[in-house]
Design goal:
Radius of gyration of chain A: 22 Å
Oligomer: heterodimer
Order of helices and strands of chain A: HHHHHHHHH
CATH class of the domain at 31-223 in chain B: Mainly Beta
Distance between the termini of chain B: 73 Å
Bound molecules: zinc ion
Number of strands of chain B: 34
Radius of gyration of chain B: 28 Å
Shape of chain B: globular
Shape of chain A: globular
CATH architecture of the domain at 31-223 in chain B: Sandwich
Number of helices of chain A: 9
Largest interface: A-B, 71 and 56 residues
Structural class of chain B: alpha+beta
Strand content of chain A: under 5%
Largest sheet of chain B: 8 strands, mixed
Helix content of chain A: over 70%
Strand order of the largest sheet of chain B: 7-6-10-2-1-16-19-18
Strand content of chain B: 25-35%
Number of helices of chain B: 12
Number of strands of chain A: 0
Structural class of chain A: mainly alpha
Amino acid sequence: MTRTALACGWQAIRRWPILTLIIYGVGVAMAFLIAIPFAVAIQDAAGSSKGLLAGSFELGLWYDTFREARGDLFTVALHLLWVVPLYLVWDAASSVGLCFALANGHGFWHGAGRFAGRSVVIGLVYLAMLIAVLAGLIAMIEAMGLLIAPGAVRFYLQAVGIPVGLVLAVLLINLMRDASRAALVVQDVGLGRALRAGLAAWPMTGAYVLWTAAALGILAVSIALESSLNAGTMGSAVILAVGLQVLMLLRAAVRVAWHGSLVALTPLPSLPAGG
Amino acid sequence: MRSFLVLLVACTLTTLASAQRPTTFDEPQSELRVRYTLEVTLRPATRTIEGSGQLQWRNPDRVPVDTLQFHLYLNAFRDANTTFMRESGGMHRGFSASDSNHGAINITGLAVRGENLLDSLMFIRPDDGNPDDYTVAALPLPNPVQPGDSIILDVTFEASLPQIVARTGWMEKDDGSLFFMVAQWFPKLGVYEIPGQRYVPVDAPRGRWNTHQFHANSEFYADFGIYDITIHVPPDYVVGATGVRTHAHDSPDVRTLRYYAEDVHDFAWTASPVFREFTTTWRHVNLRLLMQPEHARQAERHFKAARIALEAFDEIIGPYPYTTLTLVDGVGGSNGMEYPTLITCGTLQIMPSWVRMPELVTIHEFGHQYFYGMLANNEFEEAWLDEGVNSYMETRIMDEAYGPGSVLDLPGLRIDDGPSHRLMYLSTAPERGALFTWSWKYSNDFDYGRITYSKAATVLRALEQYLGRAVMDRGLRTYYERWRFRHPTTRDVQAVMEEVAEEDLDWFFSQYVYGTAVVDYELAELNLTQLPDYSFKSTVRVRRLRNGIFPQVLRVRFTNGREEMHEWDGVSEEETFQLRGQVSEAWLEQNPIDVHWLNNRIVAQGDSSPKLALKYAAKSTAWMQHVWHLLGFLF
Ligand SMILES: [Zn+2]
């Protein structure tokens, strides 16, 4: 089943490249809202030391540059206050848009518009669940810490157990949320039924794990590229920019592919009985 | 039968390494004004120690002395009203002292040749007159000590150790085991400074005691001498201490260890039943590392750092003359502290190799064997001579041995020690606080650290840059050779540096050691004019923006790639350089003490290349895209 789902994901990328472009395009445009003013502020503040700063990491000069750019950087940070919520709404809307387009072969914007409201509600419900689960997990591990004698076992339980538990909880809830959104669109059901569909998400685990691994792999390659390329000259800066954006395009494709698998794994609404 | 065997084994353990000398010298090198022969018993259940023995003091003055003065540092933790507690608010290095957590030392017996003097002991408060402070005591003597004569005091005392506060005390670990860092635990004689010593005028009629109360931000000051200390602990305890172990004996209920140290001015020891012991040697030095068992994997990291430090100090400053060095991986606030031949380092269970905290602390604390240990400045009055000079050495050794990225070594984020101290110095008002300041007179705790450690390290790096490393090193070596096993002052350091550099350094010391001058030079203008013969003339204008004066080196690059260097004394508020040719770029040589580096460079017609913006636009766009995707996981 996972294999079929993965194939459907792959199909989604190949047959509807426009979806990848939409996801990538909106993402990069919203990133620009923060990144461009940030880079301009740094460039302006660096004055005659621009060349030095571009060439190498010099802590003292950075300190001065940030101090110089303080005001502009604060303004940039303020923009986050509206850009982040806007992105979160877009994320919820684009998810249902992708489900709709992939289930019907067209109509990304239509699906996004039609289901966005309910998708946001689903996001909020799962966010609340995430917070509750995280709190519970921490409390549970702390309680286990009280029961287990101090020493290596307790240390690793707390130092390794908590972070691993948190990550697993985030991923599990994320999977359930996406399953709910897919059910909302594909089965065209109400909010309650959609949320309940999240509980039946387990058959999607295989596809989810593989696409998430691909996403994290892209993140790792991106970090490696960024830290290995100094980008101190125009040429290498362009190479870095292009390299990173190719990776981000791939990342957008992974998101589309995951939705392809999601739609394939979401049962169709049962037809009225006795036809 | 079993107990007989135990006894047999125990007796064979006795008298080990008795031949080892505490130093590489055949005889003591210091003046040996004091000698402590003490026997002390640790009682873990009550967190107390009981001590008894003899304190010997020799009168170094030309006139009889009729009073002795002592430090009773543990009384700093007596209650909330002591000077230490008032100044620190009960917090020291993040570890607190509280109502339920007391420390105190109580002298129970004090006699000279059988004559009881306990009733004459009185507490004095030379620094602040705080009647609730009991950290300094004076003892009027019935018979003055004649010049050159010695007095021997028979003393018994009890001390209760606090839960670790200000480097000393006990701590119960998670596994229920106890850890003891026993420091400042005995009645310690103050320093009697004779005429001509430190700041006592040569023509003063007599010397004076220099004995300060225990403050929140101050360390210690004591005379060199001999310590012969016998320690009794429960048989399962592992002990580390100053000096060499000359005797060890185990009986079923007590472990007895005797330590001997020479040419040192303090004695500290540690005890815990769970220490894991590691040993190694470096030339004549026996290194012993006592680790918390959960940190045992990091033993080699500590040894490596210790060897780097031994090697570097030997090369730059001079030989380490002691034959032992004990490194203690302590608990909580006991860590990051120096005592003669014993230092506390400290680490965490998870300490990635790219965070070099254990290395930094080990190198720093080892450095104190020189700047504090042998060059025993008064830490109350001139802390910059130990913490500051030592931090300067720490930055050099860290950055050379582990750099780039000596402190934090992540791809794309490599932070070195020297630059971090500089940023610490700049982090708040650089115009506040002189290096030469009594430790407890800084405006706050943070300033004490920022100035005595970080500003000092930065100022000395600037001095090194000015003098050149060879001259700087010759100065430090001369300082060490001339002043080791004595009590040097800031004045002595200046005299040595001036002698070696063959120039007057008053401008430097008065502005940056005694004063609070701030250096900021700016490249204000770069102008090109075309002359009638079509050749170019360049005008470079440099401005001094703050009160600090520091000689500057101006470098210029011409459009044809040629470079030129111009020196300027930096005195006037502005200096203009007229240069033939077309200068494309001018900059001042980067000086650690300059508080603003961004204005030290100027480029003709501005640098319009957007490569910096492009680089950071590329990076930050990708960062934001990652943030979007990660946010998608949460919502
Ligand atoms: Zn220090």
